[in-house]
Write a structure and sequence with these properties.
The protein is mainly α. It is elongated, with a radius of gyration of 18 Å.
Length: about 180
């Protein structure tokens, strides 16, 4: 990704995270980001291309976070909870909302497999073996609980739920008593 495209995407993500995306034209987004709609078309080819780039960037940052956190924890359960605490934080909510808005606009195809790939790599580094069904379930539970956080604004109940899920999934490995 070129530096200009990266800077533009960062500006567009910040703008879309605060002002939404669904009902905004390319011209409106371009103006808000301090550029022209022609530059958006040059860098992203279409509105769909821009939305796809935003989803990719949000997801990539969260997968990088998973990889980074894996170096700081001692168990898979601790990793899941550390990632949850970061992605469900108030600071991340605008980007989580933006992610789900983009998924609604694009259909969200192909968003789980990259998570399965990085989770497989991380689990191998942690010395455990998880099958793809367990990993897919973890992604689905986390996304569902993030929707709950967005809908209610309350992380307490969703956090209790993810802690319970982790305890059921890895009863001996959780550092919390869920």
């Amino acid at each position: 990704m070129t530096d200009a495209r990266t800077r533009l995407l960062d500006a567009l993500m910040a703008e879309a995270a605060t002002g939404g995306l669904a009902d905004r034209s390319l011209r409106d987004l371009a103006t808000a980001a301090g550029t022209s709609h022609r530059m958006l078309l040059f860098h992203f080819e279409s509105r769909a291309g821009l939305v796809s780039a935003i989803v990719d960037a949000v997801e990539s940052a969260q997968r990088d976070l998973l990889d980074e956190l894996a170096e700081q924890v001692s168990s898979p359960a601790e990793l899941v909870l550390a990632l949850w605490n970061r992605v469900s934080s108030r600071e991340m909510r605008p980007f989580v909302r933006l992610f789900f808005e983009c998924v609604a606009l694009t259909g969200g195809t192909g968003l789980t497999d990259p998570w399965l790939d990085v989770a497989t790599d991380v689990s191998e580094r942690l010395g455990i073996t998880l099958d793809q069904t367990e990993l897919r379930l973890g992604v689905a539970v986390s996304r569902g609980l993030l929707i709950d956080v967005l809908a209610t604004g309350d992380t307490r109940q969703a956090t209790e739920s993810i802690e319970r899920f982790v305890h059921m999934w890895d009863p001996g490995g959780s550092s919390n008593d869920a």
